Amino acid sequence: MKKSLVLAMAMALGVTASAYAANPFSDVPAGHWAYDSVAQLAEAGVIDGYVDGSFGGDKLMTRYEMAQITARAMANGADVDALAAEFAEELDSMGVRVANLEKKADNVKITGQIRAHYKDVDDGGYASALRTRLYVKGQINDDWSYTGRIQNVQELDDKEGNDETKLNWAFVTGKLGGLELQAGRQDFKPHTGNVLDTTVDGVKVAYGDKVKLTGYAAKAAGGVTHDDFDRLYVADIAAKLGVVDTYVSYYKLDADADTSNEVFAVGAGVKLAKNLGLKAEWLNGDAKEGADDNGYYVGLSYKGAKAAKVGSYGIYANYFNQPAATYLKHTAAGYADGIAKMDAFDGFKGYEVGANYTLAKNIVAGVKYFDLDAREGNMDKETLWSEVVFTF
After folding, report:
1. What is the pLDDT of residue 227?
2. Is 349 left (phi over 0), alpha (psi -120 to 50) or beta?
3. Could you give the 3-state DSSP secondary structure of residue 262?
4. What is the pTM of this model?
5. Which terminus, N or C, of the chain has the lesser number of Cβ atoms within 10 Å?
6. Residue 188, class by beta-carbon neighbours within 10 Å (0-12 exposed, 13-18 middle, 19+ buried)?
7. What average pLDDT score do residues 347-368 get?
8. DSSP type of residue 206
9. CA distance 27 to 136
10. pLDDT tens-digit profile of 181-219?
């Protein structure tokens, strides 16, 4: 092993000479120029010498030995890029092997999110829960990856302490020719989510860039208004026309239900100014006889809280006027109380206002208020939702 290689590895690991480091090798005597560095690297577990107790400092290293040392150095926080630059000539023939080690170390990534929320409803009802999510992403090859999500929900107002833990994401994503595919159990929320926001078992196929065609075929995995539906099919085309993002969507639900089995949605979004955005959506549903089949949505937003930027914030306002025929499971149903019950009164109308703020890095607080009324009859609900979200 060359003198410069020993010293550079020691520096990459932040190793400094120490008179107290024990010498584990019979052929590296005290006073040798590499004594302290070799002893410290051995103590850190980066090198272990040969079975006869020698270090073999004059021997040429094999590729496997260098790969093993590099892997251990990485595990101990070494700057592998700095080592590669220092020993470009020595490692040139090993570049693929070292690159593979670095890539393999990042092959599986785990991230997470914890959300604590409190919901207060105007009739005196309230609910609070702590939701924990762990995301697992594994790289299968250059074109395909796997994503899983494990979720635990603790209802804090449940005195019996019944927790729910389940794997509610398990899908693969990849490319096949010019197509983008995603298959398995996954969240399903096209565009605004005003038609459908739920979890499905299905396949998504997309083609194109500036003009993107997307098709979905799925079945419910729970939490959909129509519990008895067998299949869901969606066709979508989205395009960017200058500064305007547009889309047209068609939803077809195979179900025996009194409410809509088909929904059309046409939407657009535009930036009115640097931090000001406007969205609008028109919806048409396959209503039962005598019921309204047209609805709409308008949303305005300013800025937005970014988890990595402390002090960033956003505010928004949305207005809904949607007959029951224009949604299958509305995205707001997870926050606002009473939307599902308003189906019997031909849907709902009303507004939502909210704000979010980054308290500290990766800690975002949010609050939203809903004032929704049944489109027919006198049923109305006011809901205040507050939350703090931690990401890691």
Report:
1. 47
2. beta
3. strand
4. 0.72
5. C
6. buried
7. 98
8. E
9. 46
10. 999 999 999 999 999 998 999 999 999 999 999 999 998
Q: At what angle do helices 3-12 and 63-75 cross, to 10 degrees?
A: 20
Reported as a single tens digit per residue, the pLDDT across 46-57 is 777 777 777 777
Written as six digits, the tokens of 181 are 């595919």
- The residue with tokens 């928004």 is 316
Quick one: tokens of 127?
């609910």
Helix (H, G, I), strand (E, B) or coil at 15: coil
> How crowded is residue 284: how many other Cβ atoms within 10 Å of its Cβ?
18
Task: Please state the separation of Cα 275 from the chain's center in Å.
Answer: 24
CA angle, 369 as apex, 132 and 341 as ends, to 5°?
85
Please state, in angstroms and rounded to a whole number, the distance separating the CA atoms of residues 148 and 136. Answer: 5
According to DSSP, the residues that pair with 142 across neighbouring strands are none
Q: Do the Cβ atoms of 130 and 154 come closer than 8 Å?
A: yes
Cα–chain center distance at 75 = 26
Nearest of 270, 273, 275 to residue 303 by alpha carbon: 275
CA–CA dist 388, 392 (Å, integer): 14
Predicted confidence band of residue 164 (pLDDT cuts 50, 70, 90): confident
